[in-house]
Amino acid sequence: MSKALPIAVAVILGGAALVPVYYASQHPADSAVKFGSQNLDISKNSSELDKLSYAQGFKMGAQIPAEVNAKAMAAGMLDAAEKKPSRFSEAEIKKATALMNKEMFAKGIEELRLNLDKIPPEQRAQAEQALKAYDANMAFMKENANKPGVITTETGLQYKITKEGTGKQPTAESTVIAHYKGSLIDGTVFDNSFERNQPIDIPLGQVVPGWTEGFQHLKEGSKATLYIPSYLGYGEQAQANIPPFSTLIFDVELIKVK
């Protein structure tokens, strides 16, 4: 997290650490998970290995944020230890992560806004500038959502298909070959593979969540524009010539799904 923004703005929680919270809130009947076939009766008479294993788990548990469903997390660890398949697909986990990013990012911004007067004066100007940038980018997304042909998904991603493809459609785990032009809401272009005449291989499991989700709405041969809110992009982190809290606008062409 940027030292200039100390009031819990670092809420882009890559990975699935908070996925159990989202799942439990959406499926309360399923939140009481079982712990597999392992015997969890740890007592004074347990073996030395069990005691050490418990101690390791105790240390890990002390570091788990209060928001995390520890039982669901333990169930995931036991499933993995017993070589069982994941109960959720990669696509389900990525969607849950994106939804949690959206919720937690908004909470972090609101907390920053409410506590602005508590930030040291020498850092407050930068915090105010960050909030101004965030508000401008969210205002753009709100206005853009009403434009013809623009579709807004549950996570807040927006996309507009300008040419319908007829080929294969990628999944969250696919690698695709694509062209793209990336720009900011003020029109500044920060990258352009079209100009280089050099499409790239994109592993959808290894890019920002907005790309992972956006390409799944396309088929081979499609051309589209993806409008990626900051919490599905780089969040509060600056990237080269991409400022913090930037909406990322990508004109893309899906050439092939590998």
SSE arrangement:
Blueprint: H1 19-26, H2 48-62, H3 70-81, H4 90-114, H5 121-144, E1 151-152, E2 158-163, E3 175-183, E4 189-192, H6 193-196, E5 200-203, H7 209-215, E6 223-228, E7 248-257
Provide a brief overview of the structure:
The protein is an alpha+beta fold and 258 residues long. It has helices at residues 19-26, 48-62, 70-81, 90-114, 121-144, 193-196, 209-215, and strands at 151-152, 158-163, 175-183, 189-192, 200-203, 223-228, 248-257.
Describe the structure.
With 258 residues, the protein is of the alpha+beta class. The protein has a domain at 151-257: Chitinase A, domain 3 (Roll), CATH 3.10.50. Helix content is 37%, strand content 16%. It contains seven helices and seven strands. Strands 1, 2, 3, 4, 5, 6 and 7 form a seven-stranded antiparallel β-sheet that branches. β3 (175-183) and β4 (189-192) form a beta hairpin. The longest helix has 25 residues, at 90-114. The protein is globular, with a radius of gyration of 22 Å. 27% of the residues are buried. Mean pLDDT is 84; it is low at 1-37. It catalyses: [protein]-peptidylproline (omega=180) = [protein]-peptidylproline (omega=0). One of its GO terms (molecular function) is peptidyl-prolyl cis-trans isomerase activity. Its EC number is 5.2.1.8.
